[in-house]
Amino acid sequence: MRIIAATIFLSAFLLFQIQPVIGKVLLPWFGGTPAVWTTCMLFFQALLLGGYAYAHGVALRMRPKRQAILHLGLLALAVVLLARSALDWGSPIVPGESWHPRDSEAPVVRILGLLTVSVGLPYLLLSSTGPLLQAWFTRLWPARSAYRLYALSNVGSLLGLLTYPLLVEPALGVSAQGWLWPACFLLYAVGAGTVAVVFARRQPEVPGVAKQAVSTGPAPCLSSRLLWIALAAAPSVLLLAVTNQISQEVAVVPFLWVLPLAIYLLSFVFTFESDRWYRRAVFVPALVLTSALACGAMWLGIGLGVVAQVAVWSALLFVASMLCHGELARLKPHPRHLTGFYLMVSIGGAVGGLLVGLVAPLVFDLHWELHASILGVWALAFIVLLRDPGSFLNRGWSRLARTGFAACALGLLGFLVVEAHLAVEPWTFVRRNFYGVLRVGEGFQDEPARYGLGLRHGRVTHGFQHRDAAKRRAPTLYFGVDTGVGRALRAQRASVGDRGLNVGVIGLGIGTLAAYGEAGDRMRFYEINPAVIDVALDSSLFTFLSDSPAGIENIEGDARLSLRRELLESGSHRFDLLVIDAFSSDSIPVHLVTREALGLYLEHLAPGGVLAFHITNRFLDLAPVMARLAEDAGLERALVAYEPEAEPEVLSSKSLWMLLSRDRAVLDRPEIAKAASRTPPAPSQDLWTDDFSNVLATLRLHPRD
Q1: Do residues 429 and 418 touch, judged by C-beta distance below 8 A?
Q2: Measured between alpha carbons, how far is 23 from 119 in angstroms, rounded to an integer?
Q3: Which of 69, 364, 437, 679 is the most buried (most CB within 10 A)?
Q4: At residue 213, what are phi and psi to the nearest 5 degrees?
Q5: CB atoms within 10 A of CB 80
Q6: Tens digit of each residue's pLDDT (9 = 90 or more) over 499-515
């Protein structure tokens, strides 16, 4: 009994510890977008389904000794594959450099392929452990319930998730994590193998004997199975939708992946450990309250602070998950049908991942899966309550209860429809792909002199161009002439004389910086999102690129990978100015602000060149991080903050730029020095590297306007 419990606990711990580990490895390879985590979750849920299907098939159709032999063989194969990967890659689970993507084509397929190669079989076996060992437990001790072991596995999963951002990530680099996890998997394999041997020795070889001992309770009907799937799918969709919502507003970091998933797992722990945790009288009213709060969060948008946003969406996810999983636990069958029940639950989870990861980007222009998932939870709540003769919808004041529930549901539906309509109505162009949602809309319709079009990614405006002929080439927003990057460009132009500027830009937007280009200049833009390139080149929308007399090149793909490849193939670009402005919603992707990234940028910088980091951010204070990187690299730094006039003729925004150079004299030029902060930020204690970063330490509790 103890070794079964310990093995189930360890398998669940490793199952959910590997998710943020491998997700953090792959995140920089695909531009740091929230869709990387969504795709990882799709893979994990699909393999969870595969593991449950394997456990169900093996327990139902094979003799005990054959079950044990098959499982022992697969465990041995998984260990061999991890050892082979360690020899080939230098790490058991982190793919080698040859697996890095060369372009931005088919990112979902590539991520799924990388995950399959790196952790596919180990993850499948870990997924099968809970249901398979619980089935073996039921056959060894048929009079005892195995559902407590399911709660134990969820505790292990929860600890696996929570220890990552709190203990593992702050203490260990990615490379060390890539060795620690396989070492723990080896320990798990020994435990699972021991259980398999014990099971094979204690079970009779006549299938009918074992079957007769445990066959009690009617087989679940089709409608019950479909309801199990639906009750598992709804919170799964909501989990991924909430994770996307939080990540887009703050940052794409493991902590903000782990928190929603931990809440989701906690609901499993509570509802399957005991029926005392779930009460309809508590969670149905709580669903009404948290749905109303979520509507308020949607309406206020980024006006809410980090704490308020995370709290509202976490509360909704917890209540919805408790309601769905609580009803699922009420409907669980006799332990004889345990593996079939878990299989239906895993199908529901996989369906949720499939809907958010693959279907929603094809069907929805915006992130409407959040709206749909909230409505889905309400619909399921109504169905399960209506099916139960003992629920408050079917006794006492049933008509009043049904009317009240329906009125709340209709009010919610009305708000979500209106909010969705307002989200689309003002936009002239909308496109969604793996990297997010792009929207183009009009601004200053009532002011012909200031009228123009703007590009928004998520909730952040990434570019605006006036249509008035006199202002069409004027740089706007964070890129105006008096911003940090504008001053750096003026200073560098004065220093190069007549030869023309050589400028690199990470992050295209609508190509605003091309407005500074003159004949003889070379400007090279790096952009991972092909849709952004299409928008910037569409002269019916924006003309910064087509109007510029400079030589313009657009390089599609992740900037770090492209710059590294170009360095190896053709040497340094010797940029006079390299601008890092690759936003992922309201933050720079972490992999672009590490020691290794900075080293690569310096390889491409000319003597006397400047690195300009755009660190304007509502939620993350990146200035100390940049100061620490500069200190580590021995670079001089200048922080330039810009505050626009109340009603500028050319649209401007607050901005914060960190300028770095090897030469102090470059930053002391008048164009830069007179606007630089007199009290530059102190360096942070943490040096960000590809192995280590601590985004949590940079979070602001209250957003900065």
Answers
A1: no
A2: 12
A3: 437
A4: -70, -25
A5: 11
A6: 889 999 998 989 999 99
